[in-house]
Amino acid sequence: MKYSEIKGLNKSASKLVYGTATPKLFAAFAPGAGEAEKKEAYDLLDMVWATGINTFDCAAHYGEEILGPWLADRGLHDKAVVITKCAHPNKWRTRVTPYDILSDAHDSLVKLRTNSIDIYMLHRDDHTAPVGPIVETLNRLFAEGKIKVFGGSNWTHERIEQANEYAYAHSLEPFRVSSPNFGLAEQIEDPWRCDAPLGDGCVTISGPENQAARDWYAAHDIAVFAYSSLARGLFSGLFKSDRPEDAKKIMDEPGIKGYFCPDNLERLRRCEQLAAEKGVEVAQIALAWIFNQKFEVFALSSPVNAEQINQNARALDITLTDEEVAWLNLK
Question: Considering its fold, how many domains does the chain have in total?
Answer without folding.
Answer: 1
